[in-house]
């Protein structure tokens, strides 16, 4: 199982393109990449999951941990491109109601 995380920094915005499967093996790699993002009040982080084929509870934990860290720093986190399967994972856990999530991919300027 592999994961690829490409972070693109643009002024006060960070675009993260995640590809592959997020599980117990790859989640530490995702966590490490997310720690590279400097968080502050004006920062907007958009993570694109349109190329993620699978995520387990370990991956969900990494996203929740990053969400809490971003919220504590008053940064904005948005998840986009979630498949119906991934969106359902967030909805079942109640995270779909507290996190900014868009199921369909969108153009990011």
TrEMBL record:
<protein>
    <recommendedName>
        <fullName>Anti-sigma factor antagonist</fullName>
    </recommendedName>
</protein>
<dbReference type="InterPro" id="IPR036513">
    <property type="entry name" value="STAS_dom_sf"/>
</dbReference>
<comment type="function">
    <text>Positive regulator of sigma-B activity. Non-phosphorylated RsbV binds to RsbW, preventing its association with sigma-B. When phosphorylated, releases RsbW, which is then free to complex with and inactivate sigma-B.</text>
</comment>
<feature type="domain" description="STAS">
    <location>
        <begin position="3"/>
        <end position="109"/>
    </location>
</feature>
<dbReference type="InterPro" id="IPR002645">
    <property type="entry name" value="STAS_dom"/>
</dbReference>
<dbReference type="Pfam" id="PF01740">
    <property type="entry name" value="STAS"/>
</dbReference>
<comment type="similarity">
    <text>Belongs to the anti-sigma-factor antagonist family.</text>
</comment>
<keyword id="KW-0597">Phosphoprotein</keyword>
<dbReference type="InterPro" id="IPR003658">
    <property type="entry name" value="Anti-sigma_ant"/>
</dbReference>
